[in-house]
Amino acid sequence: MSFVKSKGFKYLKNLLIGVGAAFVLAGALFKLESWPYASEFLILGMGIEIFIFLMLGILGPDPDYYWDKLYPGLSDYNARLQPISGGGAQQNEEFIPLHGDVVERQLGGMLTELQSMSKSMASLKALQEVDFSGTQEQIKSMSNFYTKMNEAMADMSKSAEDVKAYKDQLSALNKNLGSLNTVYGNMLSAMSNIGRQ
């Protein structure tokens, strides 16, 4: 069985699969085009494929990882595994057995962290894609706008003061006109009284 696990066997298996498929395709092409030796190519290719499929069915899949060497029984979900300790001082500590539920919880926490990191990276990428090339001009334009607005507000304030002074002057003029009307009325009365005498 050690030859079946070797790199040489894996190479031979891939070579046989490739050669068998090539002969089947060549036979099919020869058959479609009605060329000579079409049947022989198909028979040879199909024979190789039959051998390969029988071999793959008998041998079964071979895992490409070697965790079982580190944690024997890792492929069993309910296995109670003890974590590897780093040294002699840690061997006296109590360890929580490592099994499917513990691994699922730890992987679930890691998945949540990875999703959070992914969202943060997406936000950073969106910020990176923002075009700041015209920002300086926009800031300068906004600064000019605020300066003009402040000047307009100052002018309005001065205008408001002028309007108030004008109103005060009109009010004083109205009082003076009222006084003049009273004096004029008194003069007219006095003159009409003089004319009667």
Protein described:
There is one protein chain. This protein has helices at 2-5, 7-32, 38-59, 67-70, 100-128, 135-196. It is mainly α and 197 residues long. The radius of gyration is 51 Å and the shape is rod-shaped. Mean pLDDT is 77; it is low at 87-92.
Brief overview:
By secondary structure, this protein is mainly alpha-helical.
Number of helices: 6
Rounded average pLDDT: 77
Query: Ranges with pLDDT <50 over ≥5 residues?
Result: 87-92
Q: Approximately how much beta-strand content do the residues carry?
A: under 5%
Rg over CA atoms, rounded to whole Å, is: 51 Å
Amino- and carboxy-terminal Cα gap: 157 Å
Structural class: mainly alpha
Please tally the β strands and state the result: 0
**How is the biggest beta sheet arranged?**
none
Task: Tell me the helix content.
Answer: over 70%
Structural shape: rod-shaped
N-to-C SSE series? HHHHHH
Keyword list:
single chain, rod-shaped, 0% strand, mainly alpha, 6 helices, 197 residues
Describe how the helices and strands are arranged.
Elements (H helix, E strand, L loop, with lengths): L1 H4 L1 H26 L5 H22 L7 H4 L29 H29 L6 H62 L1
